[in-house]
């Protein structure tokens, strides 16, 4: 990590996550922690009162030791992290309830790049419609739009590519497959 101040890194990465979520379709950049962009996001979001589920190959034991989150099932997790883009995770993720819509999951997917599929985004934080490339197919988008169809219930999605670029879809974002 080259002697970087972890607190300063977290502030920079938090701004990138916030910007990406506030302006869906905007590509922001995060800096890695322990040579991993996924671990950088986990280090930022995890603390002792949150739960998470991780499906992948990265060793997150050091981040667990630093942040002390609780490991749980997909259905109960506040944060769901995955090395592959899987619609099953959206289907099983909690989406809050009307008294507590904030008790929903945030899903973080690793991907190689964003060049797979062209989509049109609309909704809060987007001026009209915005064309973006996302690493997810029509089935994924259909499942996500159904999950997020009953605002304020729903989930947030972050995609992190191999060079640390980040793009987000909030629960208010409408996505059309091109």
What brief labels describe this structure?
alpha/beta, Rossmann fold, 3-stranded antiparallel beta sheet, 10 strands, 28% helix, globular
What would you note in describing this structure?
By secondary structure, the chain is an alpha/beta fold. It has a single domain (6-177), classed as Bacterial phosphonate metabolism protein PhnH (Rossmann fold, 3-Layer(aba) Sandwich). The protein has 5 helices and 10 strands. The protein has a 7-stranded mixed β-sheet with strand order 1-9-8-5-4-2-3, covered by helices on one side. Strand 4, helix 4 and strand 5 (106-110) form a beta-alpha-beta unit.
Q: In a few lines, what is going on in this structure?
A:
It contains 5 helices and 10 strands. 28% of the residues lie in helices and 25% in strands. It has a 7-stranded mixed β-sheet with strand order 1-9-8-5-4-2-3, covered by helices on one side. Strands 7-6-10 form a 3-stranded antiparallel β-sheet.
Q: Ranges with pLDDT <50 over ≥5 residues?
A: none
CATH superfamily placement: Bacterial phosphonate metabolism protein PhnH
H and E order: HEHEHEEHEEEHEEE
Spatial strand arrangement across the major sheet? 1-9-8-5-4-2-3
SS field, number of helical segments: 5
| Oligomeric organization of the protein chains | single chain
Mean pLDDT score, rounded?
95
SSE-based structural type: alpha/beta
Please tell me what the overall shape is. Answer: globular
Based on the structure given, which CATH architecture is correct? 3-Layer(aba) Sandwich
The main β sheet shows up as: 7 strands, mixed
Give me the count of strands: 10
Domains (count): 1
